[in-house]
Amino acid sequence: MSTEQLSSNPFSPQQMDQISQAQQAAIKLKQNAELLSDNALDLIIREARSHNGWLDTPVSDEILAQIYDIVKMGSTSMNTCPARFIFIRTDEAKQRLKTCLAPLNVNKVLAAPVTVIIGHDLEFYKHMPKLFAHNPDAQNIFKHNEMAAKTSAFRNGTIQGTYLMIAARALGLDIGPMSGFNNQAIDNEFFKGTSIKSNFLCSLGYGDTSKIFQRLPRFEFDEVCEML
């Protein structure tokens, strides 16, 4: 680091030591980690299927905690971490959720061991002094800009919901992401009086393969991608 960089360095010696440790850990990770095998890539996305039917096999609290422990480490812009998750497991909770669903999704949710409501906190910035502590003014970017806060919460909450789906598959579960529900009804039922809004739902469990259909087509690279 140059003399000029040192003179303008905003970090304390302790923070510089933490930064150095993080950089060395990143280097070590790249040196030692193996790329995912074809089987692993197939499991989490290439050959994985969304499920509509479920086996009567429970999903433990431990595996749900494992999923979140993976999700929380995924990147979000400015470490905002706006996603909020409600794991619907009990019959009582499923009946509350049932009233918010489109008819075609009712049986899917009732049969699934767990259905997650993935939401996002529009006031995520209140937690930035903890999550982005090295920049104490960061929350002001969003605190007085409702549109910026709304956009960032939705975008990064959606990213975290995707992490959840990949993490679940990586741990051996199947997933069934879905729309087909009334967002306002879910917000009133589960997030009333809060700054949290629902985004999408995802059932988790062990899929009944007798209920899946043929895979639908996908675009080829040249149809939707450009290299500039």
Automatic annotation (TrEMBL):
<keyword id="KW-0288">FMN</keyword>
<keyword id="KW-0560">Oxidoreductase</keyword>
<protein>
    <recommendedName>
        <fullName>Putative NADH dehydrogenase/NAD(P)H nitroreductase FM038_019250</fullName>
        <ecNumber>1.-.-.-</ecNumber>
    </recommendedName>
</protein>
<dbReference type="Pfam" id="PF00881">
    <property type="entry name" value="Nitroreductase"/>
</dbReference>
<dbReference type="InterPro" id="IPR023936">
    <property type="entry name" value="RutE-like"/>
</dbReference>
<keyword id="KW-0521">NADP</keyword>
<feature type="domain" description="Nitroreductase">
    <location>
        <begin position="45"/>
        <end position="190"/>
    </location>
</feature>
<dbReference type="GO" id="GO:0035527">
    <property type="term" value="F:3-hydroxypropionate dehydrogenase (NADP+) activity"/>
</dbReference>
<keyword id="KW-0520">NAD</keyword>
<dbReference type="InterPro" id="IPR000415">
    <property type="entry name" value="Nitroreductase-like"/>
</dbReference>
<keyword id="KW-0285">Flavoprotein</keyword>
<comment type="similarity">
    <text>Belongs to the nitroreductase family. HadB/RutE subfamily.</text>
</comment>
<dbReference type="InterPro" id="IPR050461">
    <property type="entry name" value="Nitroreductase_HadB/RutE"/>
</dbReference>
<dbReference type="InterPro" id="IPR029479">
    <property type="entry name" value="Nitroreductase"/>
</dbReference>
